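Thread: sanity check for a docking pose with S-adenosylmethionine

Original post by kr_44:
Hi all, I'm comparing my docking run against an independent structure prediction. Below are the sequence and the ligand SMILES. Could someone generate the full complex and paste the C-alpha coordinates? I mainly care about where the ligand ends up relative to the chain.
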Amino acid sequence: MTFRAASDQIEVPAGVGLTAVGMAWVRARESARRDRLFDDPYAEAFVEAAGGPAAAGPAGAFARFIDVVDSHGVQRTRFFDDYLTRAADDGQRQLVLLAAGLDTRAYRLSWPAGTRLFEVDLPEMLTFKQAVLDTRHATARAERVTVPADLAGDWATALTRAGLRPRERTTWLVEGLLPYLDADQAGRLLTTVGELSAPGSLLGFEYQSADTRLLDELRATPELAEFATLLKGGLDEPALTWLPRHGWQVLRARLRAELATESGRLAPGPLVDGFLVAIRR
Ligand SMILES: C[S@@+](CC[C@H](N)C(=O)[O-])C[C@H]1O[C@@H](n2cnc3c(N)ncnc32)[C@H](O)[C@@H]1O
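Reply from moderator J.T.:
Ran it for you. Here is the predicted complex with S-adenosylmethionine included:
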Protein backbone atom coordinates (compact mmCIF):
# COMPACT_ATOMS: atom_id res chain seq x y z
CA MET A 1 0.00 0.00 0.00
CA THR A 2 1.42 3.42 -0.78
CA PHE A 3 0.59 6.83 0.59
CA ARG A 4 0.85 10.27 -0.93
CA ALA A 5 3.42 12.80 0.22
CA ALA A 6 3.55 14.15 3.77
CA SER A 7 1.16 16.75 5.12
CA ASP A 8 2.74 20.23 5.35
CA GLN A 9 2.76 20.44 9.12
CA ILE A 10 3.61 16.95 10.33
CA GLU A 11 6.50 14.87 9.08
CA VAL A 12 5.34 11.42 8.03
CA PRO A 13 7.70 8.50 8.73
CA ALA A 14 9.09 6.96 5.55
CA GLY A 15 10.15 3.42 4.68
CA VAL A 16 8.97 0.82 7.16
CA GLY A 17 7.10 3.58 9.03
CA LEU A 18 4.58 3.74 6.21
CA THR A 19 3.50 0.19 7.04
CA ALA A 20 2.07 1.60 10.28
CA VAL A 21 0.02 4.09 8.23
CA GLY A 22 -1.18 1.13 6.17
CA MET A 23 -2.41 -0.55 9.36
CA ALA A 24 -4.15 2.66 10.42
CA TRP A 25 -5.88 2.67 7.02
CA VAL A 26 -7.11 -0.90 7.61
CA ARG A 27 -8.40 0.09 11.07
CA ALA A 28 -10.07 3.23 9.74
CA ARG A 29 -11.96 1.19 7.12
CA GLU A 30 -13.03 -1.40 9.66
CA SER A 31 -14.13 1.27 12.15
CA ALA A 32 -16.46 2.72 9.51
CA ARG A 33 -18.36 -0.58 9.12
CA ARG A 34 -21.64 -1.22 10.87
CA ASP A 35 -20.52 -4.75 11.78
CA ARG A 36 -17.05 -3.58 12.87
CA LEU A 37 -14.94 -5.87 15.04
CA PHE A 38 -13.36 -2.87 16.82
CA ASP A 39 -13.52 0.89 16.77
CA ASP A 40 -10.41 3.01 16.40
CA PRO A 41 -11.53 6.66 16.43
CA TYR A 42 -8.02 7.96 15.68
CA ALA A 43 -7.08 5.75 12.74
CA GLU A 44 -8.53 8.03 10.09
CA ALA A 45 -6.68 11.05 11.50
CA PHE A 46 -3.35 9.27 11.02
CA VAL A 47 -4.20 8.37 7.44
CA GLU A 48 -5.29 11.95 6.70
CA ALA A 49 -2.13 13.39 8.25
CA ALA A 50 -0.10 11.03 6.07
CA GLY A 51 -1.80 12.40 2.97
CA GLY A 52 -4.37 9.64 2.51
CA PRO A 53 -3.95 6.48 0.48
CA ALA A 54 -2.71 6.83 -3.08
CA ALA A 55 -5.14 6.02 -5.86
CA ALA A 56 -5.82 2.30 -5.94
CA GLY A 57 -3.44 0.33 -8.04
CA PRO A 58 -4.51 -1.95 -10.85
CA ALA A 59 -6.63 -5.00 -10.16
CA GLY A 60 -4.95 -8.39 -10.04
CA ALA A 61 -2.12 -9.09 -7.65
CA PHE A 62 -2.32 -5.62 -6.06
CA ALA A 63 -6.02 -5.93 -5.28
CA ARG A 64 -5.53 -9.47 -3.96
CA PHE A 65 -2.76 -8.23 -1.70
CA ILE A 66 -4.94 -5.44 -0.29
CA ASP A 67 -7.67 -8.00 0.50
CA VAL A 68 -5.18 -10.17 2.39
CA VAL A 69 -3.69 -7.19 4.27
CA ASP A 70 -7.18 -6.05 5.21
CA SER A 71 -8.27 -9.48 6.44
CA HIS A 72 -5.02 -10.04 8.32
CA GLY A 73 -5.05 -6.56 9.90
CA VAL A 74 -8.67 -6.75 11.02
CA GLN A 75 -8.45 -10.22 12.54
CA ARG A 76 -5.08 -9.43 14.10
CA THR A 77 -6.31 -6.24 15.74
CA ARG A 78 -9.34 -7.98 17.21
CA PHE A 79 -7.35 -11.02 18.39
CA PHE A 80 -4.79 -8.87 20.19
CA ASP A 81 -7.43 -6.47 21.58
CA ASP A 82 -8.95 -9.51 23.28
CA TYR A 83 -5.53 -10.78 24.40
CA LEU A 84 -4.53 -7.49 26.06
CA THR A 85 -7.92 -6.90 27.65
CA ARG A 86 -8.00 -10.42 29.07
CA ALA A 87 -4.44 -10.04 30.44
CA ALA A 88 -5.43 -6.82 32.21
CA ASP A 89 -8.58 -8.49 33.59
CA ASP A 90 -6.33 -11.26 34.92
CA GLY A 91 -4.25 -8.74 36.85
CA GLN A 92 -1.38 -7.92 34.48
CA ARG A 93 -0.57 -4.22 34.96
CA GLN A 94 2.63 -3.84 32.93
CA LEU A 95 2.19 -4.01 29.17
CA VAL A 96 4.72 -3.42 26.40
CA LEU A 97 3.84 -2.85 22.75
CA LEU A 98 7.02 -3.39 20.71
CA ALA A 99 6.74 -1.57 17.35
CA ALA A 100 3.57 0.12 18.58
CA GLY A 101 3.30 2.16 15.39
CA LEU A 102 -0.08 3.93 15.28
CA ASP A 103 -1.71 1.52 17.74
CA THR A 104 -4.13 3.53 19.92
CA ARG A 105 -5.10 0.85 22.42
CA ALA A 106 -3.88 3.09 25.26
CA TYR A 107 -6.69 5.47 24.23
CA ARG A 108 -9.46 3.30 22.88
CA LEU A 109 -9.58 0.32 25.29
CA SER A 110 -10.41 0.59 28.99
CA TRP A 111 -7.70 -0.28 31.48
CA PRO A 112 -7.83 -1.00 35.21
CA ALA A 113 -6.31 1.64 37.50
CA GLY A 114 -2.56 1.22 37.84
CA THR A 115 -2.00 -0.11 34.29
CA ARG A 116 1.25 1.05 32.68
CA LEU A 117 1.56 0.67 28.94
CA PHE A 118 4.94 1.14 27.23
CA GLU A 119 5.07 1.88 23.50
CA VAL A 120 8.40 1.28 21.75
CA ASP A 121 9.03 2.37 18.17
CA LEU A 122 11.39 4.50 16.10
CA PRO A 123 11.60 8.16 17.24
CA GLU A 124 10.09 9.56 14.02
CA MET A 125 7.07 7.27 14.36
CA LEU A 126 6.38 8.28 17.96
CA THR A 127 6.75 11.98 17.08
CA PHE A 128 4.29 11.70 14.17
CA LYS A 129 1.82 9.76 16.31
CA GLN A 130 1.96 12.28 19.16
CA ALA A 131 1.50 15.22 16.80
CA VAL A 132 -1.67 13.68 15.35
CA LEU A 133 -3.05 12.60 18.74
CA ASP A 134 -2.47 16.14 20.04
CA THR A 135 -4.57 17.58 17.21
CA ARG A 136 -7.40 15.32 18.49
CA HIS A 137 -6.81 16.19 22.17
CA ALA A 138 -6.59 12.46 22.84
CA THR A 139 -6.27 11.35 26.47
CA ALA A 140 -4.76 7.97 27.35
CA ARG A 141 -6.79 5.69 29.64
CA ALA A 142 -3.66 4.11 31.14
CA GLU A 143 -0.27 5.48 32.15
CA ARG A 144 1.35 5.59 28.69
CA VAL A 145 5.13 5.67 28.42
CA THR A 146 6.69 6.15 24.98
CA VAL A 147 10.16 4.73 24.37
CA PRO A 148 11.96 5.78 21.18
CA ALA A 149 14.36 2.96 20.24
CA ASP A 150 15.66 0.83 17.40
CA LEU A 151 14.24 -2.67 17.92
CA ALA A 152 17.06 -4.12 15.85
CA GLY A 153 19.53 -2.72 18.41
CA ASP A 154 19.76 -2.31 22.20
CA TRP A 155 16.19 -1.33 23.05
CA ALA A 156 16.17 -3.14 26.43
CA THR A 157 18.31 -0.45 28.07
CA ALA A 158 15.95 2.30 26.91
CA LEU A 159 12.92 0.34 28.10
CA THR A 160 14.28 -0.39 31.58
CA ARG A 161 15.45 3.22 31.91
CA ALA A 162 11.92 4.27 31.00
CA GLY A 163 10.66 2.28 34.00
CA LEU A 164 9.99 -1.34 32.97
CA ARG A 165 10.22 -3.59 36.05
CA PRO A 166 11.54 -6.97 34.82
CA ARG A 167 10.80 -8.66 38.16
CA GLU A 168 7.10 -8.05 37.62
CA ARG A 169 5.05 -9.96 35.07
CA THR A 170 4.84 -8.25 31.69
CA THR A 171 2.35 -8.63 28.86
CA TRP A 172 4.22 -8.20 25.57
CA LEU A 173 2.79 -7.58 22.13
CA VAL A 174 5.05 -7.79 19.07
CA GLU A 175 2.52 -7.00 16.36
CA GLY A 176 3.52 -6.43 12.76
CA LEU A 177 7.27 -6.27 13.42
CA LEU A 178 9.00 -9.62 12.97
CA PRO A 179 8.61 -9.82 9.14
CA TYR A 180 10.59 -6.54 8.91
CA LEU A 181 13.53 -8.00 10.88
CA ASP A 182 15.99 -10.59 9.60
CA ALA A 183 16.30 -13.96 11.32
CA ASP A 184 19.13 -12.84 13.64
CA GLN A 185 17.36 -9.65 14.66
CA ALA A 186 14.04 -11.43 15.22
CA GLY A 187 15.66 -14.19 17.30
CA ARG A 188 17.60 -11.64 19.36
CA LEU A 189 14.51 -9.52 19.96
CA LEU A 190 12.45 -12.47 21.21
CA THR A 191 15.38 -13.71 23.33
CA THR A 192 15.63 -10.28 24.97
CA VAL A 193 11.87 -10.32 25.61
CA GLY A 194 12.38 -13.66 27.39
CA GLU A 195 15.24 -12.28 29.49
CA LEU A 196 13.07 -9.38 30.63
CA SER A 197 10.08 -11.62 31.44
CA ALA A 198 9.26 -12.84 34.94
CA PRO A 199 7.46 -16.22 35.10
CA GLY A 200 3.81 -15.79 34.17
CA SER A 201 4.57 -13.02 31.66
CA LEU A 202 2.66 -13.22 28.37
CA LEU A 203 3.79 -12.76 24.78
CA GLY A 204 1.69 -12.30 21.65
CA PHE A 205 2.72 -12.04 18.00
CA GLU A 206 1.63 -13.17 14.55
CA TYR A 207 3.15 -16.19 12.85
CA GLN A 208 3.36 -17.49 9.30
CA SER A 209 3.80 -20.92 7.84
CA ALA A 210 6.74 -21.45 5.52
CA ASP A 211 4.47 -20.88 2.51
CA THR A 212 6.10 -18.15 0.39
CA ARG A 213 3.39 -17.79 -2.27
CA LEU A 214 2.27 -14.35 -1.10
CA LEU A 215 5.82 -13.05 -0.87
CA ASP A 216 6.66 -14.42 -4.31
CA GLU A 217 3.58 -12.69 -5.71
CA LEU A 218 4.52 -9.40 -4.02
CA ARG A 219 8.02 -9.47 -5.46
CA ALA A 220 6.63 -10.10 -8.93
CA THR A 221 4.15 -7.18 -8.74
CA PRO A 222 5.77 -3.85 -9.78
CA GLU A 223 3.50 -1.68 -7.55
CA LEU A 224 4.47 -3.80 -4.54
CA ALA A 225 8.15 -4.32 -5.21
CA GLU A 226 9.18 -1.45 -2.89
CA PHE A 227 7.12 -2.89 -0.06
CA ALA A 228 8.57 -6.36 -0.71
CA THR A 229 12.10 -4.99 -0.14
CA LEU A 230 11.10 -4.07 3.45
CA LEU A 231 10.31 -7.68 4.29
CA LYS A 232 13.33 -9.44 5.78
CA GLY A 233 11.66 -12.73 6.72
CA GLY A 234 11.60 -12.75 10.56
CA LEU A 235 12.29 -15.95 12.51
CA ASP A 236 13.82 -18.70 10.39
CA GLU A 237 12.10 -21.40 12.46
CA PRO A 238 8.36 -21.88 13.06
CA ALA A 239 7.32 -19.84 16.10
CA LEU A 240 5.41 -22.83 17.46
CA THR A 241 8.69 -24.77 17.87
CA TRP A 242 10.94 -21.79 18.67
CA LEU A 243 8.90 -20.72 21.70
CA PRO A 244 8.94 -23.99 23.73
CA ARG A 245 12.71 -24.23 23.16
CA HIS A 246 13.13 -20.75 24.65
CA GLY A 247 11.16 -20.95 27.88
CA TRP A 248 7.63 -20.23 26.61
CA GLN A 249 4.51 -22.37 26.55
CA VAL A 250 2.07 -21.60 23.74
CA LEU A 251 -1.40 -21.01 25.21
CA ARG A 252 -3.36 -20.15 22.07
CA ALA A 253 -2.60 -20.20 18.35
CA ARG A 254 -5.33 -19.39 15.84
CA LEU A 255 -5.21 -19.20 12.08
CA ARG A 256 -6.55 -15.99 10.51
CA ALA A 257 -8.80 -18.09 8.27
CA GLU A 258 -10.54 -19.69 11.28
CA LEU A 259 -11.06 -16.34 12.96
CA ALA A 260 -12.33 -14.74 9.76
CA THR A 261 -14.85 -17.53 9.24
CA GLU A 262 -16.01 -17.32 12.86
CA SER A 263 -16.61 -13.59 12.47
CA GLY A 264 -18.56 -14.07 9.25
CA ARG A 265 -15.89 -12.56 7.04
CA LEU A 266 -14.22 -13.76 3.87
CA ALA A 267 -10.76 -15.25 4.29
CA PRO A 268 -8.71 -14.40 1.21
CA GLY A 269 -5.57 -16.50 0.80
CA PRO A 270 -3.01 -17.89 0.81
CA LEU A 271 -4.11 -18.81 4.32
CA VAL A 272 -0.80 -19.20 6.05
CA ASP A 273 -0.92 -16.63 8.83
CA GLY A 274 -2.13 -16.76 12.41
CA PHE A 275 -1.79 -15.24 15.86
CA LEU A 276 -0.50 -16.72 19.10
CA VAL A 277 -0.17 -16.11 22.82
CA ALA A 278 2.49 -17.75 24.99
CA ILE A 279 3.28 -17.72 28.72
CA ARG A 280 6.73 -17.56 30.34
CA ARG A 281 7.52 -20.68 32.37
C1 LIG B 1 3.33 -2.83 10.27
S1 LIG B 1 3.71 -1.59 11.43
C2 LIG B 1 2.91 -2.26 12.85
C3 LIG B 1 2.52 -1.21 13.83
C4 LIG B 1 1.55 -1.67 14.94
N1 LIG B 1 2.11 -2.68 15.77
C5 LIG B 1 0.26 -2.16 14.31
O1 LIG B 1 0.03 -3.37 14.29
O2 LIG B 1 -0.50 -1.32 13.83
C6 LIG B 1 5.44 -1.87 11.72
C7 LIG B 1 6.02 -0.97 12.80
O3 LIG B 1 7.33 -1.45 13.10
C8 LIG B 1 8.15 -0.34 13.37
N2 LIG B 1 9.55 -0.75 13.18
C9 LIG B 1 10.06 -1.42 12.12
N3 LIG B 1 11.39 -1.63 12.30
C10 LIG B 1 11.69 -1.08 13.50
C11 LIG B 1 12.89 -0.97 14.25
N4 LIG B 1 14.05 -1.45 13.79
N5 LIG B 1 12.84 -0.35 15.45
C12 LIG B 1 11.67 0.15 15.93
N6 LIG B 1 10.50 0.07 15.26
C13 LIG B 1 10.52 -0.53 14.07
C14 LIG B 1 7.70 0.70 12.35
O4 LIG B 1 8.11 2.00 12.71
C15 LIG B 1 6.19 0.49 12.40
O5 LIG B 1 5.59 1.30 13.36
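The pocket of S-adenosylmethionine is lined by residues 16-17, 19-20, 23, 99-103, 121-122, 125, 150-152, 175-177, 180 (CB under 6 Å). Hope that helps with the comparison, let us know if your pose agrees.
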